[in-house]
Structure formats: C-alpha cells, structure tokens
Amino acid sequence: MTDQETTPEELDQYRLAVREFIAERGPKVPFRAGTRSPETPEQQQVLRRWTAELFAAQYAGASWPEEYGGLGGQDSDKHRVVAEELARAHVPELPGAIGLASTALLDFGTDEQRAKYLPKMRSGEQIWCQLFSEPGAGSDLAGMRTSAVLDGDHYVVNGQKVWTTNGHWSDMGYLLARTNPSVPKHKGISAFMLDMRSPGVTVRPLREITGTSDFNEVFFDDVRVPAENLIGSPGQGWAIANSSLGRERSGVAATVVVLRQYWASLWSRLRRTPAGTGTLADQADVQQRMADLYARVETLAAVVEASLERNHAGRAKPQDAAINKLFFSEVYTALAYAGIELLGSTAVFNEGDPDCVDDGLWQDFFLYCRVYTVAGGSSEIMRNVIAERGLGLPR
Ligand SMILES: Cc1cc2nc3c(=O)[nH]c(=O)nc-3n(C[C@H](O)[C@H](O)[C@H](O)COP(=O)(O)OP(=O)(O)OC[C@H]3O[C@@H](n4cnc5c(N)ncnc54)[C@H](O)[C@@H]3O)c2cc1C
Q: How much is the pLDDT for 287?
C-alpha cells in the first residue's frame, strides 16, 4: 500500500486534533506504563470503549478498506502522530493483538472472515490475544509443538502457549499451530482464529515480579476449531505471522516520547530530592549520569528519525527495526536503573506506601524494564539480525 503525503502544516493540525481528542475522550482510569494488561474489569470495560472510540475517530484502522470502516489509505506520518500523542498522554493504544490479527485477516483472510470479525474489533466487542510463543519456542518460534489436526470440518488443537498478554480477558486468539509435522518446520505451521471460550481452553494467569498479571499460560486439550477459522491456506502460517509482525511499526517513534518523559521526570524528582545542602541534582556524579542518559535518548531519537525517513522513502534497511528496538530497550533499562540508584531508598517503595514518591513509579519502572529486552524478540536475537541481515556476517 502506498503512503499518502501530508504537509507539515496539516500534520501540526492533525496533532492538535489528536491531542484534543485524547484530552476529551481518553480513559480517565489510570493504567500502568508499558504493554500492560488492564488489572480490573472496570479497566477492561474502559479499554473496550476506548478501542471503539479510536476506530470511530479513524485514529485506529484508518488504513483499512472503506468497506470495513477505514479510509482505505495508509499515512504513516499520521499513524506516528497518534502513537506519539497516546504515549505523551499515558493513554493505552489498541489493547491486545487487534493490530496483528486484523492485519492477518486483511492480508490473508476471506471476505466472509473479514466481514465477520473486523466490525467486532472496531467496536471493542472482541479483544484478541496473540497465541504464538510456547515454553520451548520463543526465539525459535518455528519450533512450536502445538498441533492442529484436521478431523472432518474441524481442527483439533492440543498443546500449550505461554506469555499470552491479555489472554485472561481476550475473546479471540490469533493462533499458530503445527498442521503438518512431516515438512520442514517453517512450512508446517498454520494460522487460526480461536474462540478463547471454546471447551478445552484453559487460561492460567502468571504472577509477575511487578505484582501484576499481564500474561498467561494457555493450554489446549482437544479444542475443536472450525476449519473455516483457518486464515489463508494450510502451511501458510509462518508467512502470515511474519507479514503481520513486520507491519507493527507504530511504536517506534512513541518510544522516544516515553524515554524523554522518563528522563524529564527523573530530573525533576532529583531536583526536588534534598541531599547535603542542596539537592541530588546539584551533585556532579548525578549530573554526569543524567547528561549521559540525555545524550543516549537524543541519539536514539536521531537514529529512529533516520530509519523512519528511510522507510518513508521505501529504502528501509533490514537492520533498522532491530537497531531501534535494541537501542530503545538498552536506554530504557539504563534509565530505570538510574532511577533506583540515584534516588535510593525513596524510590523503592510501592505505590500506596506513605513513603513512596511519584506513586511508586521508579520501583515499578525498574522491575518492569527487562520486558523490552525480551518481548518482541530478545536483545541477542536483535544483535543476530543486525549482524546477519544487516552486516552480512555468517550465522
Ligand atoms: C512482556 C512480554 C509479553 C509477551 N507477549 C506475548 C504474547 O502476547 N504472545 C506471544 O506469543 N508471545 C509473547 N511474548 C513472548 C516473546 O515473544 C518471547 O519471550 C520472545 O520471543 C523470547 O522467547 P523466549 O521467552 O522463549 O526465550 P528463549 O527463546 O528461550 O531465549 C532465552 C535466552 O536465549 C537467548 N537466545 C535464544 N536463541 C538465541 C540465538 N539464536 N542466539 C543468541 N541467543 C539466543 C535469548 O536471547 C534469551 O536470552 C511476550 C514476552 C514478554 C516479555
């Protein structure tokens, strides 16, 4: 799909409109930072409504064909502005795997499948989760063992997934399963839409170090999935998954917004934390560390900008996304460590503790920061991608 051109003036207007929209209609219920699941039924309801609002305003799904409620064109500048403004306002993006699953349906689904599922994504009626990773298949996703065996007009699914973000409140799952064990591993995988309330599906939330449960284990015991829920053709699952994962670019520029905000919050807190006769911000070693972090955030901003420009011009390099992701996760982790180490004991109290500062932000940030070195491809895998696809080094 070709990208539409938007002038800088139009984009400024658009940004103001998005900002106003978020201020007026955005969820007022607080959400934790990061790719978190809503913690209460109230938050879940809020996210369903917010999903519908984003789609109705064309701040989500604008690139969908008109017959499915979109505008039928892609404008990556506008897409970027929306992601940045959501991050700036600390308001969640579309929950779960709606973005991934809709892309799979738009690119590979049938007209019947699109007509049945896309409107329910738009209305927030159906929240989706991504059922890809398994205990023995994360980085080596193609090694997955969950099987789907055709039995009449159904596939019978057995196996286990893990890390399933939002699985505990999702209505549908975008599932990858092995339909042919006799061919090379990438070729025997198929993609399905799975009703999470089907008999034989067990979802077990995992308790994390942050005290929350964002992701889950999901078990399948003889789960019968209608054959009409296959996306594309049997064995096409690997191509479908790669195509939908490859189009998940919206977060890149927003990550810079997030890092700048964290840096500014930390600096502000340091300036208000007494130390000696002044504040922590007056100390030379603190200033050195904050200056170094500032330089790293701004370097990332420049790297991201350059990669977005290349992408816009159709000259994206195969290592671009991996460099952005690796660099972001490292700066994010460094900032989280700085928060705890520079602020010291005041930073380690939980939200709700009378002695905590900034609602427990620094402790939560620190405990959560490892997420980005793992989710969406680990740092080692990103380095492999940069080395092999970017630099042409041997495997
Ligand atoms: C917060 C979060 C949310 C997630 N949400 C979802 C979700 O909703 N749905 C879903 O399907 N998945 C989800 N994931 C899973 C995520 O995609 C995997 O965690 C990731 O792909 C890594 O796989 P793994 O955890 O199995 O680690 P492994 O692949 O087992 O890796 C373990 C370690 O070995 C290293 N390693 C592995 N292979 C190599 C190699 N070839 N070279 C060098 N080092 C290597 C890794 O870097 C890592 O340090 C989520 C993960 C996180 C952290």
A: 98
Distance CA 75, CA 88 (A): 20
Reduced to 3 states, what is the DSSP secondary structure of residue 96? coil
DSSP label at residue 187: G
Alpha carbon of 379 to ligand 1 centroid (Å): 9
Query: Which residues of the chain fall below pLDDT 50?
Result: none
Q: What is the pLDDT of residue 355?
A: 86
164 Cβ inside 6 Å of ligand 1? yes
Pocket test for ligand 1, best of 132, 134, 139 (most atoms within 8 A of CB): 139
Cβ of 381 closer than 6 Å to ligand 1, yes or no, is yes
Burial (CB count within 10 angstroms: exposed 0-12, middle 13-18, buried 19+), residue 334: middle
pLDDT of residue 248: 63
pTM above 0.90, yes or no: yes
Cα 381 to averaged position of ligand 1 atoms, centre (Å): 9
d(CA 94, CA 57): 13
- CB of 329 within 6 A of ligand 1: the answer is no
Q: What's the rounded Cα separation, in Å, for the pair 329 and 308? A: 18
Tell me whether residue 42 is one of the annotated catalytic residues. no
Contact assessment for residue 351 and residue 210, using Cβ atoms and an 8 Å cutoff: no
Within the chain, residue ranges assigned H as helices are 8-25, 41-56, 76-88, 98-108, 111-122, 237-246, 251-271, 284-312, 320-343, 361-368, 371-374, 379-385
